[in-house]
Write a structure and sequence with these properties.
This protein is 60% helix and 0% strand. It is mainly α and 100 residues long. It is globular.
Length: 100
């Protein structure tokens, strides 16, 4: 399967997701967090660095759960435009966005 290149908005949203997860993880180790969420440490590293800007919904949900974040919090944080970039329809739910 060939993946289309990310739009600038998708890349920026991925950066915000990564930053949110890094902040929420705090001093907790990446390894511990990844293992508790049942994802590979490399997957978590790629998401936190923005290299995987559109991770699968179950992956985000598992990591958010381990970090004590609600999906509503995640959605609100990553869907906040920065620098005047409009990102999708704000009425879309987190589940709809992450499933796309």
């Amino acid at each position: 399967m060939v993946r289309l290149p990310l739009t600038p908005a998708e890349a920026e949203r991925g950066q915000r997701l990564g930053a949110l997860l890094r902040r929420a993880r705090g001093e907790r180790s990446m390894l511990e967090t990844a293992l508790d969420a049942r994802v590979s440490p490399e997957t978590l590293r790629k998401i936190e660095s923005g290299r995987v800007a559109t991770p699968a919904f179950p992956t985000v949900a598992a990591i958010a759960d381990v970090l004590g974040l609600s999906l509503d919090e995640v959605w609100a944080e990553i869907n906040t435009p920065e620098h005047g970039v409009e990102i999708g329809d704000p009425r879309r739910s987190a589940r709809e966005w992450l499933a796309s």
